[in-house]
Amino acid sequence: MIKLKQYFLLTLLFVVTSLSYAQDDVACPCKGWKGLVELSGGKGLGFEGTGRVMLSGVGGYQFNPVWFAGAGFGYDFHNKLKFLFADLRATANKKVAPYADIKAGANLDDSHFYISPSLGCRYGLDNGHALYFGLGLDFTKTTHYDAVPNVHLNNSVNVNTSDVSSVADNYALCLKVSYEF
């Protein structure tokens, strides 16, 4: 019985030391310049929400193992929109850790505000690289242009059309995958 307890304690000690080694600072965010490439895609929400498939790149500075700030550019392939934004990211100081991220900027095609908060998990790799998996809510206003035929009082339709524009809120719930280098 005493041998069994010793083996159990030895095994427990081995498992605990292995887990503590797995959380070593080797793959934690290191201070310095960083780059991120992110692919996100999701489903539109609400009446005017459209889906989104977006590729973006961010360059910035890791101030300490927790805080990163940078600027980026993104392109939404589904809606054919370009975005310019600032990115602020907070990550717990572990190899596998939760993170929170917020991107705020402008929809360059429509001159409207763009914001995208997200939460997820960071998996640290060797050499300062990491993978991020998250869920975010993208929001921007988009302008829709429609061609409307001109109708006269005598119910005759003129061949000419008028452009009518409308601005709509565009929300999308997106899955995000990022690579940090």
Q: Can you walk me through this structure?
A:
The protein has one domain (30-180): Porin (Beta Barrel), CATH 2.40.160. Helix content is 12%, strand content 65%. The chain is built from one helix and eight strands; from the N terminus they run αββββββββ. Strands 1-2-3-4-5-6-7-8 form an eight-stranded antiparallel beta barrel. The longest helix is centred in the first third of the chain and has 21 residues, at 2-22. It is elongated and about 75 Å long. The termini are far apart. The model is unreliable at 10-24 (pLDDT under 50).
Characterize this entry briefly.
The protein is mainly beta. The protein is 12% helix and 65% strand. The protein has 1 helix and 8 strands.
Which features characterize this protein?
1 helix; 12% helix; 181 residues; mainly beta
**What is the molecular shape?**
elongated
* Low-confidence parts: 10-24
Strand arrangement across the biggest beta sheet: 1-2-3-4-5-6-7-8
* Helical fraction: 10-25%
Biggest sheet descriptor: 8 strands, antiparallel, barrel
CATH topology: Porin
Query: Strand percentage, roughly?
Result: over 45%
Mean pLDDT reading: 80
CATH class term: Mainly Beta
Distance between the termini: 52 Å
Radius of gyration: 24 Å
Instruction: Domain count, please report it.
Output: 1
Sketch the topology as an H/E string, one letter per element. HEEEEEEEE
User: Would you tell me the structural class of the helices and strands?
Assistant: mainly beta
